[in-house]
Design brief:
The chain has 4 helices and 35 strands. By secondary structure, it is mostly beta strands. The protein folds into 2 domains: 87 residues, Sandwich (Immunoglobulin-like); 372 residues, Pectate Lyase C-like (3 Solenoid), CATH 2.160.20. The strands form 5 sheets. The chain has a 15-stranded parallel beta sheet that branches. It has a 10-stranded mixed beta sheet with strand order 12-15-18-20-22-24-26-28-30-32. The radius of gyration is 33 Å and the shape is elongated.
Length: 579
């Protein structure tokens, strides 16, 4: 009778062992995780969207995905779950302007994840969707965003120690109704205005297109701590000091003399346009489109355009800053003005002048002597050795295209010269194209300037401080201006060619007539097939020219601002618009 009992006990033991084995091999199923609810997306700017949904403390994290337009979804970020149930928000930035985006989100809890939530879409805002007026001075680090159009009202100064950052695609307007409204970046301050070819930063008039005129507002002025050649005197920015004291927002006195740091850094400008500037706060004291006063070599300048400014397009008073890819269309005075010991290097430079400009009422007047380049040494108070004061104005200017009016009547009583080198200036001017300047292509004026070239008709690059080499001249009656005080270099030995080609034949596209309906697309500065500008460049730099050029300026086998078959670097971000 005991035998059956023994079998029963053993059988039960086997059953329990089997149950234990099943328990070890078959863990509990993971919990079911529901997708987050309440997903909402809202455009907060031209490049930003706010995402919000209901979060749960029981979750661990959330995976947010985004699709641009009709594209596929990709992960954006992982967001930690909240400590208590509530709304979770995330700001998605760096997006494209006026572009549709779709979002979805899933939850993770332990090893389990939910399915994705319902999808929600929105479109980022256009550029300048918001507006803001800026007055007074900027004394702390500040950012201007592309989704806002800023209006400068009055004389706004970025103060010592502050940095103004401007996003690509931002528009800044000078207030037409507050005379002379301008932006100053003072010594010790910085501006970081870095645009792109697709989204340049634009400083312009507050007037509507078609009503804009030169002198509608002041301009952009940057003051550094580099060296100028005027010493022992206080030198103020032209156009300032019409208001006593230093009250923020007023046109108080701004000095740029006394600098000691050639490598000073005032920030960076890239893909920046300044339009319809140059208001005159006092008689004969116009502001410029771009003013660079004692700006140091630590500053970066590239892809800049001035359009229809009342005074100079680009003015450099002393300093050592380098610049590349500069465009000036329709200047009220000089396109490129360098003086007071400026020794920076410029390469790829375009100037176009078709007529004398008509300014806004009460804003000064266009110059009677506009030039393509006007360079001076030292003149006036603080020049301890007169025009022979050092440091000399000694820039390297390479690959320039300077186009004038071809009409003496529109050039003023003494203008109409492509390159005015005077008052003891030095420098190296190489691989350029100068056309349609009705009085002369080049004026090599006064004994002090000729002395920079060792008073030689063929300056020796090994020893002299002034040379003009490998320049193409077209549609100008004289290569070098003649008359009292004028000098000239020998054409052949300096690689200077006076060609009979018409300007319209030099370039891939250049309109026979330029007027109010002309657009930037009508101007293609690349050499046309067979153009003499496609060749004739100084392909190797030697002597003092090589030393001065360093690595900032490169030699080319062509002349002018554009390489044959090369990148059309001015396209997309420059404009041509007389109003």
């Amino acid at each position: 009778m005991r035998f059956p009992t023994l079998l029963t006990t053993r059988a039960l033991a086997l059953v329990f062992i089997g149950l234990a084995a099943c328990s070890d091999d078959d863990p509990a199923s993971p919990p079911t995780v529901d997708p987050p609810l309440g997903l909402q997306v809202t455009a907060t700017g031209s490049g930003s969207i706010r995402v919000a949904f209901n979060g749960r403390a029981a979750d661990d994290s959330y995976t947010l995905e985004r699709a641009e337009g009709s594209g596929t979804f990709a992960s954006v970020t992982t967001i930690n779950a909240p400590a208590t149930d509530g709304v979770v928000t995330y700001d998605d930035t760096g997006l494209n302007v006026q572009t549709a985006y779709t979002y979805r989100v899933k939850a993770t809890r332990g090893s389990a994840s939910s399915s994705y939530s319902s999808e929600q879409a929105t479109t980022t805002l256009p550029l300048g969707a918001f507006t803001r007026t800026v007055t007074g001075d900027i004394t702390a680090n500040t950012t201007w965003y592309r989704d806002t159009t800023y209006t400068i009202s009055g004389f706004v100064h970025v103060a010592n120690g502050a940095t103004l950052t401007i996003e690509s695609g931002t528009t800044i307007k000078g207030d037409f109704n507050t005379l002379g409204s301008s932006l100053f970046v003072l010594r010790g301050a910085k501006i970081m205005a870095i645009g792109t070819a697709a989204q340049p930063i634009v400083f312009t008039s507050s007037q509507a297109a078609g009503q804009r005129k030169p002198g509608d507002w002041g301009g952009l002025i940057i003051v550094g701590n580099a060296v100028i050649n005027r010493t022992g005197v206080e030198v103020e920015i032209e156009g300032t000091n019409t208001a006593a004291g230093t009250t923020p927002g007023t046109n108080y006195r701004v000095l740029y003399s006394g600098g000691t740091t050639p490598t000073d850094n005032s920030g960076e400008l890239r893909y920046v346009r300044v339009e319809y500037a140059g208001y005159a706060p006092s008689v004969n004291n116009e502001l410029n489109s771009f003013s660079f006063a004692a700006v140091g070599s630590g500053t970066k300048l590239s892809y800049l355009q001035a359009m229809a400014g009342l005074d100079d397009s680009f003015e450099f008073w002393g300093g050592s800053v380098d610049a590349t890819n500069l465009v000036s269309y329709e200047a009220g005075d000089d396109h490129f003005d360098m003086s007071e010991g400026f020794n920076g290097r410029l390469q790829y430079v375009i100037a176009l002048q078709t007529a004398r400009l008509t300014q806004r009422t009460g804003s000064g007047s266009p110059s009677s002597d506009p030039q393509g380049i006007e360079n001076d040494g030292c003149e006036g108070a603080g020049c301890t050795n007169g025009r022979n004061t050092t440091p000399f104005t000694s820039p390297v200017v390479a690959n320039f295209t300077l186009i004038g009016t071809n009409d003496v009547a529109t050039s003023g009583s003494s203008g109409g010269v492509g390159m005015m080198l005077r008052r003891g200036t030095a420098g190296f001017y190489v691989n350029g194209l100068v056309s349609r300047w009705p009085r002369a292509a080049i004026s090599l004026r006064d004994a002090e300037t000729f002395a920079r070239a060792a008073t030689a008709i063929t300056p020796d690059l090994a020893t002299t401080d002034l040379a003009v080499r490998n320049v193409l001249i077209a549609e100008s009656p004289l290569a070098f201006q003649t008359g009292t005080g004028q000098n000239a270099f020998d054409l052949a030995t300096n690689g200077i060619t006076q060609d009979a080609a018409l300007t319209t034949a030099l370039f891939t596209a250049f309109p026979a007539t330029i007027g109010t309906t002309t657009t930037a697309a009508a101007l293609d500065w690349s050499p046309a097939a067979g153009s003499p500008a496609a060749t004739g460049g100084l392909a190797t730099f030697t002597g003092k020219l090589a030393t001065a050029a360093g690595t900032a300026v490169t030699a080319t086998a062509y002349r002018g601002a554009a390489a044959p078959g090369g990148t059309k670097w001015w396209l997309g971000w420059t404009i041509y618009a007389q109003q």
